[in-house]
Amino acid sequence: MNKQTQPKGFVQAASNIGVTEGYMPGFGNDFETEALPGALPVGRNSPQRVEYGLYAEQLSGSPFTAPHATLERSWMYRIRPSVKHVSRFKKVDMSYWKTAPHVIDDVISLGQYRWDPVPFNDEKLTFVTGMRTMTTAGDVGTQVGMASHVYLANTDMEDDYFYSADSELLVVPQDGRLKIFTEFGIIDLEPLEICVLPRGMVFKVTLPDGQARGFVCENYGAKFTLPHRGPIGANCLANPRDFKTPVAAFEEKETPCRVTVKWCGQFHTCEIGHSPLDVVAWHGNYAPYKYDLRTYATIGSISFDHPDPSIFTVLTAPTAEEGTANIDFVIFPERWLANENTFRPPWYHKNIMSELMGNVYGVYDAKPKGFIPGGISLHNCMLPHGPDNNAFEHATKESWDPVKLTNTMSFMFETRFPQQLTRFAADEAPLQDDYVDCWDGLEKKFDGTPGLKD
Ligand SMILES: [Fe+2]
Questions:
Q1: Which of 87, 91, 136, 260 is the most exposed place for a label (fewest CB within 10 A)?
Q2: Distance 382 CA to ligand 1 centre (A)
Q3: What is the pLDDT of residue 5?
Q4: Mean pLDDT on 263-280
């Protein structure tokens, strides 16, 4: 941990058993961590008095009566209880951060869309005020659906703090590192890593590189979890040990601060006289985590044909309908292709799920040109898509030798709900008007005679 980049007064746990570099490994574990020795009560959650004069408080991520396997909560031991971290709210405008349902009459969401990277500008924007919604889906009021955002940030959140009561946030950096100070500890995040910030958890973000751009999937529904593995078995894909949850850290700061809350699609702010990131110790299984996409153990065909792209699922946010996700977070990492007599790129298809893709790094095999790092594409519910002409011509003539796809990392936010474009996506973001033409070169090869055609 680079002490120089931490705000004055931040105290982080120095030595927790089994902890390296400020993180605890595992997915959904029941963690415990303390930034000061003896701060964490032993053998009980809510003793009559807590060491150091701390207050005990529970943060519930699931209803009290949820089935045992889905119960999520953490106990926090903090300098002040959270009731001291809010005051009278004042509504604020956050005009680029949109929430479903958000359907605009004269915006056509039906179509194949692709955007160049949203460029940085000179406006002072934080991770929160720089959020630009591209699509929304579902309904935040009934806690189903999602939104996809691009963030453009060039300003640290020093005395500004934020939490979303609407959603958990899956953050996918593309350009520039983030330092995320949360109630549960500090997450350092860089491109090719992701993190998940739980609903209701207070945080702020600073920018070690001065500016940052990336993507956010805002999940209104059930929390992200690991996908069912079926016959794959207990190993590969995203292995649980590669998820990292931060050790406890707290900020003791008695200066004017602002807390902004996203609630039912609206934003409200309040003034307080201290930092809300004052959790000295905590235990539980409701906490933020990060994951390095380079640790994903990709599987694929070693004979012929393709498995479905669900083999690339890192995290899934389920619905009550088994196997039908509110959101699947899917990646397309570096990997070997060894399938013989097979059209190797993704096949042409239509999908009941709606697919928003982003390119983090390198070249995507189905679209060698035009889908560049920072770029975004949208293939909505039942809209046909697939490789462009360049990719088709190459893939139908290449040798069957094993080949490694390198220099590539794209991802997909895939949802069961149709995705609606925002005004920003339709009119302000750098939409590629000619994207739909990428299939123009695909020719009719059929002439009624048998045989393989060039
Ligand atoms: Fe697709």
A1: 91
A2: 10
A3: 40
A4: 97
